[in-house]
Specification:
- α3 links the parallel β2 and β3.
- The protein has a 4-stranded mixed sheet.
- The relative contact order is 0.28.
- It starts with a strand and ends with a strand.
- The protein has 4 helices and 4 strands; from the N terminus they run βααβαβαβ.
């Protein structure tokens, strides 16, 4: 069995923005290509090919710390979790759409929905502000680095009989 793991983050969401496609479209082509090479293509290849190839993608959504005055710590944490959940779910939906397009282009049968994927598992988790890159951000750019999704991709291939 062959196995490969890849992990990287896509940063730069605006405050309370969750739309991954919007973020993706604003990225430079090098980062877009990295996302395709390391996430989209391995997942689409696993779904397109015969049995023996599998891909698991875990998408972690991250938020910057909410510092809105007048809100309780519980309200702040709830806001952070809501935003980070939205980011992870949006990235998952975008990824499924990309997988479906490539499977169709390869002449395969497009799964009806995420639950119908045969060789790919897409999972999400919301981290809120639990894993900040900048604990005390000094500028808007550091806040944008805190607002991100993290892709963790594992691919597996069974040996041929």
């Amino acid at each position: 069995m062959t196995h490969q793991d890849v992990e990287f983050s896509v940063e730069g969401y605006g405050d309370h923005k969750t739309d991954f496609k919007e973020l993706f479209d604003a990225l430079n082509s090098g980062i877009q290509n990295l996302i395709f090479d390391e996430v989209v293509i391995p997942a689409a290849s696993a779904e397109s090919e015969a049995a023996g190839r599998f891909c698991v993608v875990v998408i972690l959504g991250h938020s910057d710390r909410v510092d809105t005055p007048g809100r309780t710590p519980e309200q702040r944490r709830a806001d952070e979790l809501t935003v980070s959940t939205g980011r992870a779910e949006s990235a998952k939906d975008w990824l499924f759409g990309q997988i479906a397009e490539l499977v169709l282009a390869a002449g395969g049968i497009v799964p009806a929905d995420i639950a119908s994927l045969q060789n790919v598992s897409l999972r999400t988790a919301a981290c809120g502000s639990a894993d900040l890159k900048h604990l005390i951000p000094s500028d808007p750019a550091q806040r944008a680095e805190n607002r991100r999704v993290q892709f963790m991709v594992s691919t597996f291939s069974s040996p041929s009989p």
